[in-house]
Design brief:
Shape: elongated
Family: Belongs to the FrmR/RcnR family.
Radius of gyration: 18 Å
Largest sheet: none
Number of domains: 1
Helix content: over 70%
Organism: Cupriavidus pauculus
CATH architecture: Up-down Bundle
GO molecular function, one term: metal ion binding
Protein name: Metal/formaldehyde-sensitive transcriptional repressor
Pfam families: Trns_repr_metal (PF02583)
Strand content: under 5%
Number of helices: 4
Amino acid sequence: MSHTIQDKQKLLNRVRRIRGQIDAIERALEEEKGCLDVLQQITSCRGAMNGLLAVVLEEHIRCHLVDAEPAREGQSDARDVLVEVVRSYFK
C-alpha cells in the first residue's frame, strides 16, 4: 500500500491548512494589509508547503528507495526520478 494512501487523511488535513493559509494571503491583499503582514503569511505558507514536501519525500524514500532494485534497461531508476523532482523544486 502506498504511503500517500495509508496517510491520506493526515496529508489532506495538511493540504487544507495550506489552503487556509493561501486564503489568508488573498484576504490580506484584498484588505490592503501592510507588507509585513503579507510577507508573514507567505512565509508561513511556504513553511507549511516545505513541511508537506518533507513528509511525503521522507516516506517515499523509506518506502520506495531504501531497498529499491536497480532499474532494468529502458526503465527510469527511482533514485534518478527523485533527484529530478528535488531539482525541479529548487528551481
